[in-house]
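Hi Y.,

Following your request, here is the sequence exactly as I used it, all 331 residues.
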Amino acid sequence: MGWMPAQGRLAAGLLVNLAASICIVFLNKWLYVRLGFPNLSLTLVHFAITWLGLYLCQALGAFAPKSLRAAQVLPLALSFCGFVVFTNLSLQSNTIGTYQLAKAMTTPVIVLIQSLAYGKSFPLRIKLTLVPITLGVFLNSYYDVKFSALGTVFATLGVLVTSLYQVWVGAKQHELQVNSMQLLYYQAPMSLAMLLFIIPFFEPVFGEGGIFGPWTLSAVVRLSSSFVCADTKLFYFYNGTAVWCDSLYGKLVHLLDHWKHIACHVSFVTYNMFGHFKFCITLLGGCLLFKDPLSVNQGLGILCTLFGILAYTHFKLSEQESSKSKLVQRP
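Below is the corresponding structure, written out as C-alpha cells. Let me know if you'd prefer a different format.
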C-alpha cells in the first residue's frame, strides 16, 4: 500500500477498524438469533483463530514471544475468557442497544476499581461525567421493551469482568514487561483450554444445535465472516492499544508495518471520535436490522450516555495535554 498517501492509509486503517467492530456485533447477533448457533462454541473458535493468528505472527517475526510462567497469566486468561463469554451472552440475550450501552458502564466500573483497590484518585470533573453515563444506561434498560432479566445478569457480569480484565492487563504488562501481543499469545490458548473443558456441560457438540451440527452453507459463510471480523478487530486495536497485525490476510509482515505506521498518526481524539461514531452506528443498525424497538425514553438514555462519554473523553484529553505541557516545560 506504499502507493497510497499517508492520510489515505490512515483513513483506510480507521475504516477497517470501524467495519470490523460493527460487523462483528451484527454477525454474531445474527448467528445467535437467526441461526441459533451455540454461544460458547462460537467464542471457542474465535479463541482458536486468534491463537493461530498470533502463532503465524510470531513465526514471521512480527513479535518475539517472552517466556512466562502459567501461574503469572492464569488469572488474566480466566478473566479474558469470562469477559468475552459474558459479553457474547449479553449480546445474545439483549437488544443491540442495551448490549452497547451496558458496555459503556465499563468506564465507571474501572474508575471505581482503580479508586478502591489501587488508591488512584480522579478529578471531580471526571467523576461527574460518570453520572450521565450511568443514568443513561439505567434509563435505556428500564424502558427497554425487550427487557430480559437473564440478559441483565449477563450484561452486569460482562461489565464487571471486562473492567477487572482491563485493569489487570495494564498492571500485568507493566509487571511482566510485555506488550499486549506477547501477553495474548499466552492468554488465548489458556482461555481456549478452559472453554474446551466447560462447553460439553452447557452446549451440544454434535448433532442439531451443536458446533459440528448440520449447518447450511449460509451459516458457514456468516460464521467465517465473523471469524475474520473478530480477528481483525482484536489485532487492530487490542484493548485500545495499537497492535497492528492482521493474521488472516496475505503479506503479513508488510501489513504489520502498515498498521504500525498508522498507529503513529492516530491521535487519541481521532480514535475516540471513531469510537463514538461506532457506538451510534451500532445502535442504529440494531434498530434497522433486528427491528429492536426504541422508545423516546430509551433515546433520552442513549443521548445521556453519549453526552457522558463525550465529556469524559474531553476531560481525559485535557489531562493528557496538561501532562505533555508540564513535561515540555520541565528543565
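Confidence is low (pLDDT under 50) at residues 236-268.

Thanks again,
Q.
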